[in-house]
Design brief:
The protein is an alpha/beta fold. The strands form two sheets. It has an eight-stranded parallel β-barrel, surrounded by four helices. The radius of gyration is 18 Å and the shape is globular.
Length: 279
């Protein structure tokens, strides 16, 4: 398992690799621009080349991009749709430039429409964004919270190639999945395999939860001080069929702020303890 963290690109794309090296990351996630603003950050080919060169010289093996939070692929509002398409396309182009494994997005919100219609709109927008770009895939992230959100389960969405799945331990816990026991994790991965296929599972978000299972609240806690806890995280990280995947901590860290090296060390230790003997 390639364990790492979400890191800042403040000061330039390549600065993310410097921060990742300080944390001892094997995988990272970044925002391609400010996550709560529509205005894109414009990068040059030189920026991309500098990032790739820094990554090649580091221990970081995988980089993912998280799209901005404002995007709603399922929207039926014309202006919001255009903004979402433009922003997602921009993120994918940055992903092409830096060699990212994928762009993580939340599938979107239903608003006042049916789930079927919302899913169709999301797939259509994603096809358009992929058609405008070259290589970088899109990774759907499972969501937590309102039943008005798409992505709370693993029903097939259909759609094109270059489409994968990212699962978040906190979101799964909040939605009601049992990620705290080996039996629960086996059932979860069996479901993903049956409905989507394990080849589509590309990335793990490793987050503890401040709230009880089934709360529908997406509120992260420092690992292992939340409701999932050390034992639960051992079950999540120790599931045999997840081994080899990149696993990214999003935070907060143990000090309540950004993830630090100690947090990575804690998760590595939990992962090691969670691997079944002989596994």
């Amino acid at each position: 398992m390639l364990i790492g963290a979400h890191v800042s690109t403040g000061g330039g794309l390549s600065k993310a690799i410097e921060r990742a090296e300080d944390l001892r990351c094997e995988s990272i996630q970044i925002f391609n621009q400010s996550p709560r603003m529509w205005r894109p950050t414009r990068y040059s080919d030189d920026d991309f080349a500098e990032f790739r060169e820094a990554m090649d010289a580091s221990k970081v093996e995988v980089v993912a991009i998280h799209a901005i939070y404002l995007i709603n692929p399922a929207t039926n509002d014309r202006e919001m749709r255009k903004k979402s398409l433009d922003s997602l396309t921009h993120a994918l182009r940055v992903g092409d430039g830096i060699g990212a494994m994928g762009v993580v997005i939340h599938p979107g919100a239903l608003k006042d429409d049916t789930r079927t219609n919302a899913r169709k709109r999301a797939v259509k927008l994603i096809k358009e964004a992929l058609a405008e770009t070259e290589r970088c895939p899109i990774l759907y992230e499972n969501t937590a919270g309102s039943p008005q959100l798409l992505g709370r389960d693993f029903d097939k969405t259909g759609g094109p190639k270059r489409l994968g799945l990212c699962i978040d331990s906190c979101h799964l816990h909040a939605t009601g999945y049992d990620v705290r026991t080996p039996q629960g994790m086996k059932a979860l991965v069996d479901e993903i395999d049956a409905k989507i296929g394990l080849k589509q599972l590309k990335l793990l978000h490793v987050n503890d939860s401040r709230d009880a299972r089934g709360s529908n609240r997406d509120r992260h806690a420092a690992i292992p001080n939340g409701e999932i806890g050390r034992k639960g995280m051992r079950a999540f990280l120790g599931e045999p069929r997840l081994q080899g995947l990149p696993a990214v901590l999003e935070g907060p860290g143990i000090d309540g702020k950004a993830v630090v090296r100690k947090d990575i060390q804690i998760v590595r230790r939990i992962h090691r303890d969670g691997i079944p003997k002989g596994g």
